[in-house]
Amino acid sequence: MAPITVKKICCIGAGYVGGPTCAVIALKCPNIQVTIVDLNQARIDAWNSDNLPIYEPGLDEVVKTARGKNLFFSTDVDKAIAEADLIFVSVNTPTKKSGVGAGYAADLNFLQRATRRIAEVSTSSKIVVEKSTVPCRTADAMRTILEANSKPGCRFDILSNPEFLAEGTAISDLFAPDRVLIGSLQTESGKDACAALANVYANWVPRDRILTVGLWSSELTKLAANAMLAQRISSVNALSAICEATGANIDEVAFAVGKDSRVGAKFLKASVGFGGSCFQKDILNLVYLSESLHLPEVAKYWKAVVDMNEYQKDRFSRKVVDTLFNTITGKKIAILGWAFKKDTGDTRESPSISICNHFLSEKARVNVYDPQVTEEQIWLDLDETSTNEVDHKQHVSISKSAIEACKDAEAIVICTEWDEFKTLDWAKIYEACPRPAFVFDGRLMLNRAELQQIGFKVVTIGSGDV
Ligand code: UDX
Ligand code: ADP
Prior knowledge:
single chain, alpha/beta, binds uridine-5'-diphosphate-xylopyranose, UDP-Glc/GDP-Man_DH_dimer, Rossmann fold, NAD, UDPglc_DH_euk
């Protein structure tokens, strides 16, 4: 047997991973027809419109160039599956909310439903690729489902091809990835399937960046990479608490530490805590896996990364309350930034949500502004996380600009590092604030001296002097 030449790709799941990834594959491989499908009609309609369902720099251009030529968005899941020779499974795998492993393990319900559909609909052999982040050995479960439900003569080769793109830089990450990882069974057909997918990526990714490994190594690598990245942030955030207590400055410490080539400079920015759909979920997954494997010390080690993140969010919120003379009841506080990082409209696990809820539990009045997150999404996030202690509808308002959010605010809290916050007319904002006016820079992004000169009292994460 020789590797097949992939001509038609189906991607199940038109979310943050499936959408951008397969749009870039279509752009870079004009000879391959790529159909991205989703059960969610509104999402597919948005992908087919001028108003894409996700905000990602550079994405509009990619989609506009390929859509209608070799890139299609559809809700006809069965047709796209039936026609494809290779299927990416990019459905959501959130943390389980109930049952065994609740709060830790991944909910594989969506993945299993999609897998079952592939088996039921396929009338020819397929390469099935796990794109969603999954626990180690999920491919085994997928194979069992595929084999139990398949028609005679249909073969399924399963590959793991985790996606390492980061939101906000997804398109440049996809154009020039550090590596593409493909895991397969080390059988002849497994290796052929792996080569077929490698040939797709080789249309634009240098061969030496396409790594081929065993299936389980690939699955574990995704969890390991995210856990190690998050661990760096928790380490630097833990040090930021020491900086605040000693008068050291975390940016200076991180810069000097990062100059050691063994450590490296990236991912050492202290913050209000990490957010996003991956870090926490994947670490909790790793914790669950370790416990299932009877490795409690390993589980405890990784769990501490998430615990430190919770501590950081809580510590920052408390600092705001302490600084505002131990009470924020009835005080107006502006939260600038609701997305979990800049250049995305995604709010999953965003620290802003926890921080806002903390302020609400202290009965503050909160004004929120974010350049990309919709008002509807902010309400949804609060509805889902509200503790019902305080009616958030009464205490929160959502502003159309940073200036509007900051008007009359006793404290301005920077939660997301949007570039536009650097160039705001801070002098004008100061004029519209009661005295003393505080800025809490949870992203270490503003020019402290300039703000102080205007008159603000500035408190930053990881820096001792107020
Ligand atoms: C992450 C991984 O980077 C990516 O490889 C994987 O595919 C998915 O998960 P993402 O969550 O999109 O990507 O964004 P990332 O840039 O990793 O940021 C995650 C969180 O960490 C954000 O809240 C960000 O603000 C925070 N962060 C990042 C810091 O607090 N400090 C840093 O130095 C870097
Ligand atoms: P991610 O960040 O991993 O891409 P998202 O939640 O943004 O996660 O996207 C996952 C998408 O997968 C959602 O739009 C959801 O509707 C879709 N999806 C889930 N299950 C199925 C399925 N069985 N068939 C088609 N689409 C599905």
